[in-house]
Each structure stands twice: as C-alpha cells, then as structure tokens.
Amino acid sequence: MSRELIKLKKEGKTQKERVTYVLFFADGAWVCGEAFLGGYIPTYSQRVGDLIKEGFPIARSTCSNKLHHHDSSIGSYKWDFSMKGTVNA
Which of 42, 61, 64, 89 suits 51 as a labelling partner, its CA being 20 to 30 A distant? Predict the structure, then answer.
C-alpha cells in the first residue's frame, strides 16, 4: 500500500476511517505500520485495535518484509476476507 493512497484519502476522514479504508482496499495484502506513519496516522495501532474490538476482520502480525529495515518490531495488518463471524463475513 503506497503512502500516496493513504494521503489521498486523508482529507475529511478520521484516522479510524482512513485505517479502515487503507486495509479494506489493500485487497488482503499486508500493510506495514510504516505506511500508516508515512500517511500521517500516528495512532494507527490503536485504531486497528479499535476496529478489531468492533468485530472487523483484521489480522495482525509483525512486518517480515525483507526490504524494510525497522529499528524495532513494527506491526503489519491486513483485512482478512476469510474470517468468519465478523462484521463483513
């Protein structure tokens, strides 16, 4: 997911709405937390947690992209279209 796409949907949206948009339209691809930071969503981790609590089908893991060079563990998230018993399943 590109930072440009995150920035594109920035105006007029809450951070939670922007996180929802990015994850849903990533078509099941993992989105690294750095993409959210680059898209000016500093509280992305909390917003993802809120969405999970609300029943949205979001999977989380640690970013394992070999091209990313994180100083510490960064989360990676995706909209899991296969999850059952959730808001959109």
Answer: 64
Count of C-beta atoms within a 10 Å radius of residue 39 = 24
Using the structure block, give the residue that is written with the tokens 């105006």: 11
The residue with tokens 């960064």 is: 74
Alpha carbon distance 22, 24 (integer Å): 6
Instruction: Please state the pTM of the whole predicted model.
Output: 0.76
Q: Which residues pair with 60 in a beta bridge?
A: 77
Using one digit for the tens of pLDDT, what is the confidence trace for 16-37?
888 888 898 898 999 999 888 8
Helix 15-24 × helix 44-53 angle, to 10°: 70
pLDDT, tens only, 46-68:
999 999 999 999 999 999 888 88
Rounded Cα–Cα distance for residues 27 and 2 (Å) = 13
Collapsing DSSP states into helix, strand and coil, what is residue 4? helix
